[in-house]
Amino acid sequence: GTTTEAGGGGGKVGIDHPRADSDFWNSYIKYVPQMAGELKVDLMPATNSQNDVAKLVNNVQALIGQGAKVIVMAPQDTGAIANTLQQLENKKIPVVTVDTRPDKGNVFMVVRADNRAYGTKACEFLGEKLGGKGKVVQLQGALSSINGRDRSEAFLECMKSKFPGITVFSEPTEWEGSKAASMLQTRLEQNPDIKGIYMHAGGVHLAPTLQVLKQKGLLVPPSDPKHVFVISNDGIPQEFESIRKGDIDATVSQPADLYAKYALFYAKAAADGKTFKPGPTDHGSTIIQLPNGLEDQLPAPLVTKENVDDQALWGNQVK
Amino acid sequence: MNVHVEARDVVKRFGPTTALAGARIAIEEGETHALVGRNGAGKSTLVSILTGLQRPDEGEVLFSGQPAPALADRDAWRRRVACVYQKSTIIPALTVAENLFLNRQSDKGLINWRALAGRAREVLDTYEVDVDAQALAGDLSVEQRQLVEIARALSFGARFIILDEPTARLDGPAIERLFTRMRSLREQGVTVMYISHHLDEVYEICQSVTVFRDARHVTTRPVADLPHDELVAAMTGEATAVYEARSRTPGETVVLSGENLGLAGRYSGIDISVRSGEVVGLAGSASSGKVGLAETLVGLRRADTGTVTINGTKVRPGDVPAAMKAGLGFVPEDRHHEGFVPLLSVGENATFPIARKLGRYGLISPSRRRDTAERMIGSLDIKTEGPDQPVADLSGGNAQKVVFARALVDDPTVLVVINPTAGVDVKAKQALLGAVEDAVERGAGAVLVSDELDDLRICDRVLVMFHGRVVKDVPRGWTDHELVAVMEGMEE
Amino acid sequence: MTTLTAPAPRVRLARFRDLTLVPVIVILLVVGAVLDPTFLTAGNLTNVLQQQAAISLLVLAEAMILIAGKFDLSLESTVGTAPAIAVMLVVPVAAGGFGIGLPGALVIPLALLIGAAIGAFNGFLIIRFQLSAFIVTLAMLIIVHGFLQGPSEGKTLFQLPDSILYLGSALWLGLPAAIWIAGALFAAGIFGLGYLRLGRSLYAIGGNVDAARAAGIRVDRVLYGVFILGGTLAALAGILETGRLGAIGNNQGVGWIFMVFAAAVIGGVSMDGGKGTILGALTGVLVIGLVQNILTLIGVSGFWQPVIYGAIILIALMISRIAGGKAQD
Amino acid sequence: MTTLTAPAPRVRLARFRDLTLVPVIVILLVVGAVLDPTFLTAGNLTNVLQQQAAISLLVLAEAMILIAGKFDLSLESTVGTAPAIAVMLVVPVAAGGFGIGLPGALVIPLALLIGAAIGAFNGFLIIRFQLSAFIVTLAMLIIVHGFLQGPSEGKTLFQLPDSILYLGSALWLGLPAAIWIAGALFAAGIFGLGYLRLGRSLYAIGGNVDAARAAGIRVDRVLYGVFILGGTLAALAGILETGRLGAIGNNQGVGWIFMVFAAAVIGGVSMDGGKGTILGALTGVLVIGLVQNILTLIGVSGFWQPVIYGAIILIALMISRIAGGKAQD
Ligand SMILES: Nc1ncnc2c1ncn2[C@@H]1O[C@H](COP(=O)(O)OP(=O)(O)OP(=O)(O)O)[C@@H](O)[C@H]1O
Ligand SMILES: Nc1ncnc2c1ncn2[C@@H]1O[C@H](COP(=O)(O)OP(=O)(O)OP(=O)(O)O)[C@@H](O)[C@H]1O
Ligand SMILES: [Mg+2]
Ligand SMILES: [Mg+2]
């Protein structure tokens, strides 16, 4: 994207965090004040909508009441904020959304990585490792979350078109480790020949999956024919650790640091009156045009044993 | 005269229990008809059938020769019959006024609360019930609630009224007032079915009497034709002598004593001491504080001042377990409230206080519990399918006996019984009073609180309370008249 | 007869028993005003009321059901499912509908009807089969939510007929319509449970069902009515929420039921039936709404927010316990 | 007096009232075997038991609390918080700990102690201040979960001392240790509530608390004990779950409480207190576990799964109602 115009203004940025109960979002939440300091953004105290769109709407109203000039949010329900976006537009308050793309209502910028691409990457990875045949399990997130659905649909579509010889079992885990463990255990009992696992969220699925594989004696190196290929999603440090140990094979790194950085970058830009156009950016991503705004598609690299020690990965920067 | 109400060949079963086995009753128009029988004879079951609360398994009910209305048509039933049930139908969270006019607070449309309170006060005044119409029914005493229920039944203006043991919780003057009221209703041609275990009441206000025994009709006769002992024989199926109070000499050891007891608003400055081998009565009209005092002695209430000593141990105020440990057994005033756990079995309810003796290491041996319970069932003559039946399924009087069993099971050296014979049939009453006397003969000391003068006859002395103070210590040998005079505060 | 203490004070106390939360509300208003200048503005307080409008209807419904001695957990699912199914019956397949294409004007009556039907089915299972209300409505909570998730396949419905958006988003006389509607319904509830025979019969049923039956109250019929009314109110709450949010997400209403119970119970409605008032329940809703608003305004860390929130509920409970003077159940 | 038929059948019936879910279990076993050949294998059934082990301890705790006439919603939060805080007291800061560095061997006793303390605090509020158990434990559910989220800042604890992983993952005599532990505790519960004075007093307290007090039972003391035991069992459930999952997520235990109540209530434990048995509650857990397992095996679409699941609970409820023959509450 290119800055085409610089204007006066500035102003307070209100930010709402979507939830505080997952590792990914918690990393994001911790990056926000750090990045705000670096970018010199006038950030208001953050609110948290605890995965409830009704709370999000209430929080945004409160932020406006307290004088926010730009709003950063991450609506986990992308439909039900249409009215709020309309109200914000009427009040001329630009909105930057993180991670999700609202279905309706104008936004200044969407900062996200392509969740469908996560699913496709995972599919391609597993498909190749399994040589296009066999059985895989995907541990889905919650079906009512857009990200879970995007990953799930893209994974299934890709499997169907590129690897028709692979059977996929989809387990809706509601982002819960307990459900993931039970369902995976049951499925492995029923189909001991499962050779691949795609986890939608490393934060909640990683430990239970390893635990089940260990119990079944399937936690063996890739050279062993009993090896089950596991690809995760998120890019938290523990996934990297498991990749190094050979417990899992890959993960898609969802850039929590870049989410925070560019959410605030665009928020500040909006407050300063800058605008952007579609096209490649200076930080290795592309801005695309949406019907209701722009979207900066941040890179989400596939991490395997080869590149797991790359210090540019956010998972390697947190302790 | 016409038959106003009739039940024919009624059968009613509850699981394995047959509460009514082809029972019948016919009540003439305008008479006051008594229904008597031992606990569990099926009287209350008949009441629920005559008031349309339960459908008989067999048989039919007729009002003035017409078949009874459908069970769903409650209004039609309520036009035909009003009732004071044995089990309370007061709703504690509502005011007295609303309880009186439940589901008829207004004719149509809005409830005018002021007018309702006015109407309620009128009803309460008419029946001389001294209760605040605006008070919550839950805050009333047991007998105040009973009076409210009676006033409600009478206020309907139905031509047929059923009173199921209305006097079990009333004291003398209140009973008299109720009878005055019933007589005037009879003069207005109202038909009444009256259930009571006080047979003298039957003779006082009823014209005819029906006796049930073992779920069956035994006889129906004008009361004048049925002398007292024949009536009792009809009920029990055998000749039964009148209870004779036994005489004894109290021992020297004081087993229970209270010093300078006082509880704000209830009683004050009470000193009481009970020796082993002695029965001390506590009498008084309503609100005299006798129940409050007895409840303090057993630890159900904490007194503001004074101490209670049981067998030489000073008991922590308000600590029932400590009192029981010191050797106390007691029968509380309201069996539903404090008496039993309805879902638990007869055996378990009766043996709670001795649970620690029914096995070692906190264990309860079911067979020892069964044995103990069966002994209690036998000695108190409790009509039950066995120790495993839940108390909730027992008739009122038999539930009372279970509470009694609980009081006696630990061979208490101090026994406090409050209105112990409420709702208990003649024969059972003898058994219960006998049980108190047995315990005393074994060396216990007993306090007996009662509104019934007959019960008080077993006492070696009666402490009469008036407005929260003990006004007189009456030795054995009093006459009804003397005692009532003291209770009413007419003699000092 | 009996000596009674002076009756007057007792009556007055009973009247105020509904209002034991008023001191809590006053404290919250003062604390809020001190902590954030925005708090006491008309705009902010209007927001609080609007935000609580939908959930307050659930509290109204649940309070009535609790007073009648029953229980309904499934209300929260009806909030999403009733309007969603109604919308799906109306909109074309492309917008996520069933392709039945009923006229758009029908969507509100349809939603209310669906709510009523869910209530009636709950009533049927509980009254007819004498099943435990808790567990029946727990199962129904899951099933009814499934009837949103199943047909929508987890997707948000955002192309909605205008008619269903109107009530939740319109302004009447400068105030959100939702506030007027909730206000009117609460007034009707306070009035109905205070002054109508039918309303009073809920207390009788909840207080002692045998006594109520003996007094000629058609217990089953009244209970059916209460469940149906509850379902209908939940559907209306769903309509208001839909209008406020502009779309029907798959999680609409999910997780509300705990707050609904919390509001009703701290407002003095007993879980054992027969006790409590609609006015009390309303004060409970307000307390919850104000607490949430203040926490949002002062921006407590999301991690610790639940602790503070829960602690405030506990404190409110204690204050209302002390002000009310009676043990709770 | 009444005409009695032989008393024997009633007694026998009463004994079987705990087992009204047995026909449901039999049906589920048959249906499961028909639908999937894996279902009836020893491996799969062992999995079901292992998966239900942790939650079954909560059901055991809740059943006791319900029988005593109380309520505890906060158990589900203790499942995550108790082991998490214990772990944080032990592990170094780098692993998400507080940096206090207590010895790793202490982690299990610490977790149990924390669970007991939470239970004691619930008991304190409910018994001492006579507050509503429902709403107190609802607030505590939120607060206790906050005490997991706050210190962990929402992060999953991955680096756990081995001692806390052992119980949930070990095999004893070829079966997961969790099954042995849950089995032993249920046996103790069945025995304790059936044959111990203390256990029987729960029924008395739940059935009529005034009568229990008048019968010389130290009601408050027993209730404290039940809450503390409940919290401890929840902490143990958390330990087992931690071992099974290999990490403590922020959501550990969240959302369990509904299933816990469902299991207890379909197993015949009354929400009104004084009724139900531990054996009944156990059958409830098994039904829920088998249903979940069968649904996973046959792979019903995730969207419609809740509908089927809820419907099966309703059907189980009806069967147990018919088999039991009594109205439920
Ligand atoms: N709901 C019930 N379930 C089971 N058994 C019952 C039920 N109601 C009454 N019974 C039984 O029916 C029989 C008759 O009871 P009922 O209450 O009619 O006796 P009663 O003559 O009124 O006795 P009392 O003088 O003690 O009040 C008793 O054995 C009682 O246990
Ligand atoms: N908790 C209470 N608070 C206020 N007054 C009460 C309370 N409990 C009872 N009372 C009233 O105090 C009075 C004295 O009660 P108490 O039971 O000690 O006397 P009593 O002689 O047994 O009267 P009764 O024969 O009417 O039972 C009664 O009128 C009762 O209504
Ligand atoms: Mg009777
Ligand atoms: Mg009295």
UniProtKB/TrEMBL annotation, chain B:
SMART domains: AAA (SM00382). Keywords: ATP-binding, Nucleotide-binding, Repeat, Transport. Pfam families: ABC_tran (PF00005). The keyword Hydrolase does not apply. Residues 5-239, 249-492 form the ABC transporter domain. The keyword ATP-binding applies. PANTHER family: CARBOHYDRATE TRANSPORT ATP-BINDING PROTEIN MG119-RELATED, GALACTOFURANOSE TRANSPORTER ATP-BINDING PROTEIN YTFR. This is Sugar ABC transporter ATP-binding protein. It comes from Nonomuraea maheshkhaliensis.
Automatic annotation (TrEMBL), chains C, D:
It is found in: Cell membrane. The chain crosses the membrane at residues 21-40, 52-69, 81-100, 106-124, 131-150, 170-196, 222-240, 252-271, 278-300, 306-324. Its main location: membrane. CDD domains: TM_PBP1_transp_AraH_like (cd06579). The keyword rRNA-binding does not apply. Keywords: Cell inner membrane, Cell membrane, Membrane, Transmembrane, Transmembrane helix, Transport. The keyword Nucleus does not apply. It is a multi-pass membrane protein. Coiled coil: none annotated. The complex is composed of two ATP-binding proteins (LsrA), two transmembrane proteins (LsrC and LsrD) and a solute-binding protein (LsrB). Part of the ABC transporter complex LsrABCD involved in autoinducer 2 (AI-2) import. Probably responsible for the translocation of the substrate across the membrane. This is Autoinducer 2 import system permease protein LsrC. It comes from Nonomuraea maheshkhaliensis.
